[in-house]
Amino acid sequence: MIRRIFFLFFIFTALAQAQLRIEIRQGIESPLRIAIPGFAGEPQLSLLLDEIIEADLANSGRFYAMADNELLSFPTQPEQVNINDWRITDTDYLLVGQLDSDSFENLRISFQLFDIIRGEQVLGFRLSSTVNNLRNSAHRIADIIFQELLGIEGIFSTQIAYVSESTRNDQAFFQIVIADIDGTNPFVVIESSEPLMSPAWSPDSRKIAYVSFENERSEIYVQDLATGFRDRVSFRQGINGAPSFSPDGTQLALTLSGVDGNLDIYILELDTQRLTRLTENYSIDTEPTWSPDGDYIYFTSDRVGNPQIYRVEARPRGQIERITFEGNYNARPRVSPDGESIIVVHQFNGDYRIALVDLETRITQVLSEGQLDESPSFAPNGDVVMYATREQGRGVLSSVTSDGRIHQRIASIGEDVREPAWSPYALR
Amino acid sequence: MINFKRFILLASVFALFACSNVEETVEIPNADTSMDGADDNVSTQGMGERVPVTITTGGRLVLDGTDQEGSALSQQTIYFDFDSAEIRADFAEALQAHGAYLVDNPGARVRLEGHADERGTREYNIGLGEERAQAVRQYLMLQGASSIQIATISFGEERPVNSASNEMAYRQNRRVELVYTRAN
User: What does pTM read for this prediction?
Assistant: First the structure.
């Protein structure tokens, strides 16, 4: 029995290899100290569970997962916890858990979270899982703890899509990859010898829209992730670029140029191919993105001579309003999930940085520290922004909390990675 | 083909719609290219519950008559200044030669591939590359070339010739490449 589980576990970890690895570059001064002595149960499975929960919490930059030699004891049952004893240690929270694995198709996980300072159990939870689903269950537990202790919805069960470029047979080779937010389970959505760009998630996270140059022109595809079936939704003359799903998933905002090369913003209804033009200006209008309520489309335009952010009502002949005024380069907006701010690429002292613009006060706050930072993407909880930057001539991903306090570097193995797009919350 | 049929169907639905609602929608049909060519290069394979798509395409065509060393015609890359789509004076001679070649060879077809350096955002740089390709297109048409002879495409910053992050590389990457797809 155990041997069988072990065998499956081996396959399972082989499948879960990471392409990306998260490192905290700058955290907060006093992260919450959490003790996780380990789950009772089958050792290999328990260990995996511990490792993922600890890594998720620690990688958030808001927790410090205590090392074994810092723990007072190793309780695995709530009745073994003596909170008064733990109080003399420098521990904020203690997680105790049990994994019951009578067959690998039927795992039962329970856990109890103790607040040491308040001296009480604050959470008790039970969930069922399978060996193949254990990793997801671990992320789910980390989400539950994160939500309970910080009041912020967790993002450990989300995914990122990104573009990777490598060299094969001396030629550039492009992929759009989806991975878990901790970099594991990379899955190649599409690969091509011609450029791939601008991956965008559908709101139900079941589809990806992207730009492909496979037919020696820019074309927009929408690909179903489960079946691999894809629809070539826009291959009009000129540029077809920058797809962005509407919040209800029925429409794409996109950029079209026509034969004369004038880029403007349109809305394409996916079922009917019905097209609505939103801007008509001889300058470059591009990089559209929807507000969460679907009322506005924010976009980049250089109509005043340099790129700035504008928004237009998402309807024919909608009003256009300029949004950014600080600095002479603001481009590629993404709206926060609460609709209160946008994240942009902002030129600052000659460098391209990621900046947050408050839509009410219009105050611009520079969040990143690189020279060529681009493609910012909000986590679905609005708490973290992932972006692309360059280090030693290679494209890498980084993230920063939207308060600018915690910086993470996401290392990739051997490739040039860029254009991260954070998934929405999956339908549960 | 399925896609194309679907398009026809949708286009007729769209046309009906457009009659009743002319002001609100615009009609820009998808280009008349079938998916057949692409299908040959697309292969799918199963991986778990999600299916990837693999695409490979052939190399570009190199034609006779445009590659003689030292001739103005052999200058097939036009470079641009930072954040500019203006044709520089030092490329006038080369573009005049290409314009004359297109006039003399009405069957010739050229594709103008616009590029940008890596600074700035990617889709915006697609726009910059397109502006550069359009500037070359206008120049060639002023020489008498016909619009049907010229296609444009912008790769933005996606196809750098020099992937370093310095001024030298940026200068090399801000360019339009003239790629002949038919010689005459």
Answer: 0.87
